[in-house]
């Protein structure tokens, strides 16, 4: 038995080393594009032009950031994104809780059918065009509601939250009920304070979704004053593509390079808020709040 | 009631009693139903009305008219796209991209989870998790922008690396043969970490006694993985696989829309981007609703069939 253990641990040790190296490479691949973008946004054009910038900036300067911050389109877009994200996230948290809390109750009459009513929308829906025509007919085009309401309830997220609520020990809720509190105050005073991990996770999921969204703004917002910052970035991305397509590769290069540092800076400014919130919430979803979604 | 026979009387009473009990439970939970009313109304307006709006696939649309169309046209719009060779090209493109993405993208998160599970250093494990989950939180626009930077023929890190070995720069984003690899590899990059979460959670739920039993039977690490770990997470693998087959025809809309160029269009154009151009840009609403309905129904059929097969063979299923 003892000898067996030693034999395993030597070959296992070898595996551990290989594994460590492999995972380190994976991590490097995951962060490299970030570091590269950050470095080019802080470098001077001439170094970027020669493709010399790796993960450290060369000819450090903040010119690119200066140029974007002065661009009123960027500023307006950033402000719009902030507003859409905050409003959308609040709406989503409300909707998701309002669905998950009743459906987590044991013995709710008709629960099976109500669940089916919600879950069915995960597998079949109206498609792009009918949804688009609905928003148009409701006269929501060019309003904040067009980019927040259609996606404000993710059934998948609702199922995760429902499982979390179901896991709250009944002894706690029963005790509160004996004290005579109603279902509404039970939610506000007992359930929600116990649900911080799931609320944090949901906030992150929804907020990131709204923050990153560009497609619903593309189809529902004709007015460029209402565009989120992601559409501003899309303009840069598409501009480069278009110019690349209209000419040959060598004529592309000049355009390519003039815009490169600015593009990098825009990407960083769009990404930084997510990078800032993410680590605080990450510990919750690592600890397994995702499990609930698996079987529903 | 009084004159009725004993048996029917008692069953009638119990039926009445049961109904009263159900009613009592409904009344007890009335606040919950009231709360549920809000999302249900939302769902009807924003999900079920568009679902009914699919009727437009069979009806003519008039500008300023109803979203449900103004006049029956039968299967005219279906015939239009079914007889269109370009539609079938787009259909095949979608299938190929989707299936390749599944073949290459599906196993990697499982492997990553298994490898992460062997990391005994808690901090190290946490660091790897934090870093690999991160790309999932980026906007598609940001990912495509990063791809432009990395793959640029004149300044991109990848081409600079190739140049060092005397290989000429490749214009990855404008070369038809590179479209699928770029799409799939960037998808793996963005989602492998995130998709490994479910497997990692499933791994922690594998009964440790099974490992002990296997070790006593003389199974080494590799055999333990093969005979204990993988069967332990198999239900999760199956469920994830079923779920991902349900969106085979809806693949990668946002990324394709940002990535495709005139040169790569021939293989890059997928059903959703086609629907977007023909519908939103060119306002052919009935035609694209028909395409969308076709897409939705096929997705639904695929996921149902896969689910049934899985239920028969592995006893794991979504419903």
Q: Could you characterize what this model shows?
A:
The complex is a heterodimer of chains A (296) and B (319). By secondary structure, chain A is an all-alpha fold. Chain A has two domains: 1-61, no CATH class; 69-293, MetI-like fold (Orthogonal Bundle), CATH 1.10.3720. Chain A is built from 14 helices and no strands. The longest helix of chain A has 41 residues, at 2-42. The radius of gyration of chain A is 25 Å and the shape is globular. With 319 residues, chain B is mainly alpha-helical. Chain B has two domains: 6-72, no CATH class; 76-314, Orthogonal Bundle (MetI-like fold). In chain B, 72% of the residues lie in helices and 1% in strands. A two-stranded antiparallel ribbon of chain B has the order 1-2. The longest helix of chain B has 30 residues, at 285-314. Chain B is flat. The mean pLDDT of chain B is 90.
